[in-house]
Amino acid sequence: MDGESDESSEEFGGSLDSDEVPPDADADAGKNTKPLLNGSAETNHKLAEEDEEDGDPPPNYVITEDANGNPRYVYQDIDPVYASDDSEAPQTTNTIGNIPLSFYDSYPHIGYDINGKKIARPAKGEALDALLDSIDIPKGWTGLTDPNTGKPLEISEQELNLLKRIQMNEVGEEGYDPYPATVEYFTSKTELMPLSAAPEPKRRFVPSKHEAKRVMKIVKAIREGRILPYKPPLDNEEEDLDVKRYDIWANEAPRPDHAMNVPAPKLPPPGYDESYHPPPEYLPDRVEKKVWEEADDEDRQKEYLPTDHSSLRKVPGYDKFIKEKFERCLDLYLAPRIRRSKLNIDPESLLPKLPSPDELRPFPTTCATIFRGHEGRVRSLAVDPSGIWLASGGDDGTIRIWELLTGRQLWHVKISSEEAINVVRWRPGTDA
Questions:
Q1: Which residues of 27-40 are buried (b: 16+ CB within 10 A; e: fewer)?
Q2: pLDDT at residue number 369
Q3: How far apart are CA 305 and CA 288, in angstroms?
Q4: What is the pLDDT of residues 122-135, one digit of tens each?
Q5: Rounded to the nearest 5°, which phi and psi values hold at 138?
Q6: Higher pLDDT, 21 or 220
Q7: Which residues contact 376 (CB under 8 A, 6 or more apart)?
Q8: Sign of torsion, CA 12 14 20 22?
Q9: What share of the chain is helix, strand, coil (3-state, %, to 5)?
Q10: What distance in Å separates the CA atoms of residue 288 and residue 294, rounded to the nearest whole number?
């Protein structure tokens, strides 16, 4: 009985070996099939015809009889549908999961595919060696065996390069630089000027303990009298009683200037030509020096010639110093100076009295009414002669009539949607 069951299962491609109807197929079996006593081809053909007459799709299984005469459901192979545009169908994969292939060493197969069919063990031994000798070694051949399928393991060129880099103790990522350039977060240059010239705050001051000890010793010596504070020396010069000295400025009191006193004019500041080391353009040449020496004293523009000296200590004494001071005093003594009396008049009294600027404002200063309705700029306004209504026109191409006191819009009309209203006027008269 068991042998016949195994043969029937192999005949239908490794289908289910159960003698019972699966739970999912109970409802379909009750609708689409009828109980059969034998599994003949004629019976199955009649069943298929009845299903087609009913309009239902044919079932994906065949009913046969087992060795005991009971009905047996044999399902067709699963045809997986791949919703992909790839022309290459996926290879047959082993569905044994994480079970090692060593468990199948005593069997001629190495697992099962998605349909439950056995996957044959790949060829080994002399037949494989003869095959390899007869053909060239394919690209990507490694000589390793895939533990899941038992077939030779083929790797791509990218994976092969990755293995080579790992074997040579290199980083797997291509183009990786193990020694990048150092980023100078802190410069090695020493700046001469500080970043901030602010003085150090007092909270950073740390007093020296050694200096504190020395100060305490000095304070203790001053308290004990061993160190006396400094006193300026006394002048012990004896005065000669026979010599009488008078202080003519002892009782001198400051006196106010005389009403007619006129201060002397100030001398102009010295120029570049009076310097001991003047610029070269101020030094006279030979011709200018000869002309100045041959001219009379009254005809000379200057009483001196600019001279260049390397240092101030090499400047000789001025031979005309006394004469120059005498002429200066003579000019001050003989100069005709007149005091002009100034009128004591208040400048503000000469200006006419003007009204306050607050009283001269020709414009309103308080917002009383807001007229809302125009979109954009208002180009023209016109007030009704009666002073009750206000007409306005703007960029939105509308003319609006407002109540002047309340700001309420009474009437509006759209004149144009492209051009603005530039001028608005009230028509004189009451005739329509």
A1: eebeebbeeeeebe
A2: 86
A3: 10
A4: 766 666 666 666 66
A5: -70, 160
A6: 220
A7: 394, 395, 396, 420
A8: negative
A9: 25, 10, 60
A10: 10
